[in-house]
Each structure stands twice: as structure tokens, then as C-alpha cells.
């Protein structure tokens, strides 16, 4: 590894680069040369192997900052493209270690068997995320029809000048927000139930937008995408006009890897 | 979105908002495994997109509900009206109708709806062309 030697020399001077880690894969994987990593200019992605596992890494300058849109997309693209081919344990964005040797000594070697077991478990499966979002007009129409208090408050506000109704409008908005939250819970449960009927693992994600109706991650066999699409299509057909749906993936199994001691945080 | 339902992410990268939802708070956490070789690199401040209801949220919803009666009051029969316009290729002697149709179409996409995704869309497209 000539690269590592050069790197160590640089490190003696002022440790100008670090080793960014994307994820963990089986050792028999290869990285195509044109894959670009995070950083500006983008680092060259390569593998650091130990035993039967390997880390996908690239060098990053330590004097810069990470987290540009390009960085974020590079991280996810690399892991998703990898996941489509082989099992991969994705790391959260922003993992940097001192050197490739450090990656072997502190990450790969001590946890080799655990990581290998997890990779074997993921073999042949990928993550998809189903995202459902309310059509605002439709869901607000439902809420007005179902909640006399909200309809009454709206009428009251409508007949008064805006500057006199700030508190009333806040109250109205809060009731609407609560009504949407209740609908979100019901729709998330319904979608999760439909997806779980495929006999797959599901994880409900918290909403990331005010209009989110549901976000559910699914871990499913690579060759069952059709079945998943069918379930999502059916749900979309049933919800037509009130919910729009997207099916994202295949992804690395971001929602299905657990860091020890982290599970209870949510 | 079109009537045919589900937008498919496929193999193309998802929008930046979707990326942020995924990689900033999911995946293995390096700190749990590694000690001395860990490097704390500075990350650009990125606000994870967590929905926290605020006064702004409430006012926005209130405004959206108020906007709603505008489209409701003129909403009766509009679907038919729009079909007529479409079938006539928008050539119509009744001048008021296309204008109403436009109003209705504007109502379908309130200006604040998804506005947070606009710059991300172009980011996605740019990435897409690269691949």
C-alpha cells in the first residue's frame, strides 16, 4: 500500500488528512475506479481489508469542513450503489479516523465477528423507504369537515381583520396541526400494516415535513421489489387525491443497523 | 403529482432532503466503536429536518385553512369545467373559465408547499446528469 506510506509521511508533518469511512462490506468486494468520495476535490474511494470484512474509505483533508450537498449525496450514493450489489453496514455521515491502519486496529479487528455476522444477516436484502405526503388541500378539507371546532374558529377569524386575530389564528393552526398528527398516526399504522404483511422488517421514521403522512423503511429481499411496488401502488390507489407516495431505494440498510447502546435514544 | 400515483426513486439519487433524512441520524455511529484513532472533523451545520411545531407552523396552517375556502366557494362544478376546457383544448368562448381554471390549478400547489425542496431539486438534477 504505497498510499498508506505517503500518508504516514504527511501525518508526521501535520496530519493533514484523515480517513473517512462510509461503511463496512465483505472483504471480497471491489470498488470501481471512478467512484468519487466526499471532500473537495472528492477523495478516491478504496477498501481497507481485515479478515473477511473491509471498510469503504477515502482520504479527506482535515483543514476543511464536511457536509456540503455534494458530500452528503456522495456518501449516500456510494452506499446505495454498494447495497444494490453486496451487503453493507452504513456508517452515519461524518465518520473520520486518523489513518487506514487505525481503521483496521480499532474498528475492523476488534469487531470483526460482529460485523461479519451482521453482514451475513443482511445478505440479499436491501432497504426501501416509502414516503407518503398529504395533499394539503385534501387533508385540510377532511379536517374542516371532521372538526366542528376548527370550522367554527375559521369562520370567526374570517370576519375579522387579520391584525386582531393573531392568537385565534395560532389556536386554529395548532388544532389543525394536532388533527394532522392524528391522521399521520393512523395512516402510518395502516401503511406499516400493509408493508408488514409482506413478512418483512419495517421501521417507522419520524415525520420530517409538516405534510408527511407516513415514512416507513422496509428491509426486503432484492428480488422482491415487484411485490413491494404492488403494495405501495395499492395503498396509493386507495389514498388517491389525499396522499402522494414515493418509493425510494434500493438503499443501504440505514434504518436496520443498530449501534450498541444507541437503540434507546429515539 | 400525476394521477398514476407512486413516484419511483429508482436507482437515481433521491433529493437532498431525502438524503439528509437518512444519513445524518441513521447508520452505525463510529464513536461507539473507536477511541484514540477517532478524528473529530468539523461538519457544516446541517439542521436535521425534524418537525417541531411552532407558532410559525400554526400561522401557516391557519393561513392554509383560510385559503381553502376561496377554492371551496368556487370549487363546486369546477372539475367538470376543467374537463370541458381540456377537451376543448382551452379554446373557449367563455373567457372567465380558463382564468378560474388557472386559479384552481394554483390552489393545487400552495406556494409554501414543498418550497423547501426547490433548491434541492436542482441539486438532484445536477447529480443525476453526472451519473
Automatic annotation (TrEMBL), chain A:
Keywords: Gas vesicle. It is found in: Gas vesicle. It comes from the Bacteria. The keyword Chloroplast does not apply. The keyword Transcription does not apply. Signal peptide: none annotated. Pfam families: GvpL_GvpF (PF06386). InterPro entries: GvpL/GvpF. Belongs to the gas vesicle GvpF/GvpL family. This is Gas vesicle protein. It comes from Nonomuraea glycinis.
Automatic annotation (TrEMBL), chain B:
Pfam families: Gas_vesicle. GO terms for molecular function: structural molecule activity. Keywords: Gas vesicle. It is found in: Gas vesicle shell. Transmembrane segments: none annotated. Residues 72-131 are annotated as: Disordered. InterPro entries: Gas-vesicle_GvpA-like, Gas_vesicle_GvpA, GvpA, GvpA-like_CS. Its main location: other. Belongs to the gas vesicle GvpA family. Gas vesicles are hollow, gas filled proteinaceous nanostructures found in some microorganisms. During planktonic growth they allow positioning of the organism at a favorable depth for light or nutrient acquisition. GvpA forms the protein shell. The gas vesicle shell is 2 nm thick and consists of a single layer of this protein. It forms helical ribs nearly perpendicular to the long axis of the vesicle. This is Gas vesicle protein A. It comes from Nonomuraea glycinis.
